[in-house]
Specification:
single chain, about 230 residues, TIM Barrel, 8 helices, about 35% helix, globular
């Protein structure tokens, strides 16, 4: 069965990365929720996609008690997603104000998953390979996924699959446009799950399901479930 992950929650129905979006996704029957995590000035884990708040302040310069009302902490988000799988994407890009070579966010997320015994209910992903490597160093039992941009029929597919497998990670998370039958077979042969992002078109969702992907990330989980015949 292809799992449906609600991208930043049910973000077509509610503001993205909010408790309302997560609650709506669960109510729609999504199998999982994808959300983004960054650090605040006091080291809290805030659920937010961009490095800056809407008022322009860098999130990393704001203490958790001063966050806008709509910005939740990861602990509250996990509570709102009780009963479904949560794909926690660690944001840590060079050039952004909160970039951290020490991988403090990844380490903190791994500790939180362990403390709450959520190893079977959380997967930690990132475009930053060092971030998910850090998660595995902290707690080898936390599933991890490598986020990548992948063009169709690219020669990079095989090496990316091997790099992900060799790092001990659980999944490859490519953009859906790069997902082919060969990539699905390659991931399966390497023992990796393949979770494709972010796709809202019902026809493409059905096609990905027919290809046998393990999961799709979508802004419209209700639409995706129908497209998959669920």
């Amino acid at each position: 069965m292809t799992m449906v992950y609600a991208h930043r929650g049910a973000s077509a129905a509610e503001p993205e990365n909010t408790l309302a979006a997560f609650t709506a996704a669960v109510a729609m029957g999504a199998d999982g929720v994808e959300l983004d995590v960054r650090r605040t000035a006091d080291g809290a884990l805030a659920v937010h996609h961009d490095a800056h708040l809407v008022d322009g302040r860098p999130l990393v310069e704001v203490v958790s008690t001063d966050l806008p009302a709509g910005v939740a902490l990861l602990e509250a988000a996990l509570d709102a997603c009780d009963g479904v799988v949560v794909n926690v994407e660690v944001k840590n890009f060079p050039g952004e104000p909160d970039f951290d070579d020490g991988q403090a966010v990844a380490e903190a997320v791994a500790h939180l998953v362990g403390e709450r015994d959520l190893h079977r209910h959380v997967i930690v992903s990132s475009f930053n390979l060092a971030a998910i490597d850090c998660v595995r160093k902290v707690d080898v039992g936390v599933p991890t996924g490598y986020l990548v941009l992948l063009a169709p029929h690219t020669e990079a597919a095989g090496p990316l699959v091997e790099k992900t497998r060799a790092g001990g990670h659980s999944a490859l998370h490519p953009h859906h446009i790069g997902v082919t039958a060969d990539l699905v077979r390659g991931c399966a042969g390497a023992g990796l799950a393949l979770n494709a992002w972010t796709v809202d078109d019902p026809g493409r969702i059905a096609e990905l399901g027919d290809l046998g992907v393990d999961g799709i990330v979508t802004n419209v989980p209700d639409v995706a479930l129908r497209a998959l015949g669920r």
